[in-house]
Design a protein that fits this description.
Number of strands: 0
Distance between the termini: 63 Å
Shape: globular
Oligomer: single chain
Largest sheet: none
Helix content: over 70%
């Protein structure tokens, strides 16, 4: 990139980022003076901001590079991580969110304290805080910085080595992202995420079209023909045991990994806890599921196109998308792309930072005080906690490049230490009344020890996602057994604190049916029934049955009452 192009890119990037910052400031001015205003956006988020923030929080640089790299090097089997999340969003909309909102919980550990005791709360906070501060937040900063380095060759532009360039980029991204999270609270995060989400959709849909045009020597139709008729095995989403994501894992551990992420992970569910009512929360969560269905088109098809363009000639599969971007994106659009890329990184980073500060204030600092803290003092502590967590992340993030097994492996291994016990404990807590706090405490200790042994000491040969499912089943049985042997003396009584309207969205059921139908349709399309080795005779009849089923559901349009979404002990 020459100096003139660099100037245009930098100027346009700064313009778009400044526009997002200005809009976010206007939308949040004067609305972060209370703890609910800062941590939960005043419980006033609508569906648009919830969906936009969920989208950007979930999608970042590691997906752009990693998923396209997986498609380039293997096939579309890894789309399961994104597409099957739609099922988890349905579970969140119908089962978890109504229960969270009816109790007016601000954090997941707050619910665990109410359901079990403060010890379970503290143990869960430790799991989240250690994971966020030491791995997840530094991982987001590191992967985002690596993406910027790959796309724009920062070492050459600055005339420095790779490591100094990485440090400068991490600090720049971290400081800018921290401004939203520390000073603007959740609403600033949600507003900026939504605007950047629109940009991500534009870029995500434009890149495949530009790449198809390049593949087809200027013709998108010709490029599409080459894509679906040549090397069509690259379009197969039905992963074999040797693929990165075997298809069988979709029905085992991936279910629980997605349930953890979308239904119990604090930094994801926090924007749904800030919904102005149940209907808006359901709409936002379900709409985010439709965005997830688009991920294979935006973040995997370009990787397949890169395979057609470059063959096996790339040094690393993770360079496929950066090289494609450099070759197909016009210079005048590079600044907009950089702004969107940074926006995606900011989103994940500032959402994590905001949630970590929320957990610290509401579940650590607040309960330790002997008095009730006023909003001003609580917000002051939150901002100081955010600064401290950010500084720790800045120091750890550059060190991740020295990890012997790479960033993806570290995140995967570490997340496995706490995702399964958390979702198991929440489910037992929601759907039982006699299980005591002893059960979750045993499960947390058991899981850390068992998972550590199975991951680092004992080579079972079992795929880690299957291991998730096995441990989940064992841990559910442990808690139920403890509840049977030593049940609570009194059944847990739920205390309703309805701060928002719990009337469900009237289109929730048909929308959920259509969302799940889209998942099935995608798997039909990217399989031997669909595009792999030519469209089979069964493809169109199966697609027709899906369409007919959706038409019936929408015409019938079944409703659901608020009482139906809550268990008997909450009605």
């Amino acid at each position: 990139m020459n100096s003139e192009n660099l100037l245009v890119t930098a100027a346009s990037c700064v313009f778009f980022m400044a526009l997002v910052a200005w809009i976010s400031y206007r939308q949040t001015r004067g609305q972060t003076r209370t703890r609910d205003g800062y941590f939960l956006a005043g419980r006033g988020l609508g569906a648009t901001f919830i969906a936009g923030s969920l989208l950007l929080t979930n999608l970042s640089a590691e997906q752009l590079i990693g998923l396209n790299g997986s498609a380039y090097g293997f096939n579309l089997s890894s789309m399961a991580w994104e597409v099957t999340a739609a099922l988890a969003t349905v579970c969140m909309a119908f089962f978890f969110l109504p229960r969270y909102l009816s109790g007016a919980f601000s954090t997941l550990p707050q619910f665990l304290a109410d359901r079990f005791d403060d010890s379970v709360r503290r143990m869960s906070v430790i799991l989240f805080m250690v994971g966020y501060a030491l791995i997840t937040i530094p991982g987001v900063l590191y992967s985002g910085s690596i993406a910027v380095l790959q796309f724009f060759d920062v070492p050459q532009l600055l005339g420095v080595g790779q490591f100094p360039a990485l440090v400068y980029t991490i600090v720049l991204i971290g400081v800018l992202g921290s401004v939203y999270a520390i000073f603007g609270g959740l609403r600033a995060v949600a507003v900026s995420d939504t605007i950047n989400g629109i940009g991500l959709l534009i870029v995500g849909l434009a890149i495949p079209l530009l790449a198809l045009a390049k593949l087809g020597s200027g013709s998108i139709n010709e490029g599409l023909t080459i894509l679906v008729t040549t090397e069509s095995h690259k379009l197969n989403a039905i992963g074999s045991p040797d693929d990165p994501t075997p298809f069988a894992t979709v029905f085992t551990g991936m279910i629980f990994a997605n349930l953890f992420y979308w239904c119990t992970n604090q930094y994801v569910i926090q924007r749904t806890l800030g919904a102005r009512n149940l209907a808006e929360g359901q709409k936002g969560v379900l709409f985010s599921g439709f965005f997830k269905v688009l991920v294979p088109i935006m973040m995997m098809i370009p990787g397949v196109i890169a395979f057609h363009l470059y063959g096996d000639g790339l040094d690393s599969i993770d360079t496929a998308y950066p090289r494609l971007i450099r070759e197909v994106l016009p210079v005048y659009a590079a600044g907009f792309f950089l702004a969107v890329l940074l926006g995606a990184v900011f989103s994940s980073f500032n959402s994590l930072l905001n949630s970590a500060a929320t957990l610290f204030c509401l579940d650590v600092w607040g309960p330790l005080q002997k008095r009730e803290l006023d909003d001003e003092e609580m917000l002051r502590v939150a901002k100081r906690a955010g600064v401290c967590i950010a500084l720790v992340s800045f120091m750890i993030a550059p060190m991740l490049q020295f990890a012997p097994e790479g960033l993806w492996q570290i995140i995967r291994i570490f997340t496995g230490f706490y995702n399964i016990p958390v979702v198991a404990i929440v489910m037992v807590g929601l759907f039982t009344r006699r299980t005591p706090a002893l059960g979750p405490k045993i499960v947390i200790i058991f899981h850390i020890v068992a998972y550590g042994l199975l991951q680092f000491v004992i080579d079972t040969g079992i795929h880690f996602l299957h291991l998730y499912a096995i441990l989940f089943a064992i841990e559910i049985l442990i808690m139920l057994a403890v509840g049977w042997i030593r049940p609570r003396e009194q059944e847990w009584t739920f205390r309703r604190r309805e701060l928002v309207d719990l009337t469900p969205w009237r289109f929730a059921i048909p929308c959920a049916v259509t969302l799940l139908s889209c998942v099935v349709a995608l798997y039909l399309l990217f399989s031997p029934v669909g595009l792999v080795d030519g469209v089979s005779a069964a493809f169109w009849p199966l697609l027709g049955l899906l369409a007919l089923g959706n038409l019936i559901v929408w015409l019938w349009r079944p409703g659901v009452s608020a009482a139906a979404l809550l268990p008997d002990w909450q009605n």
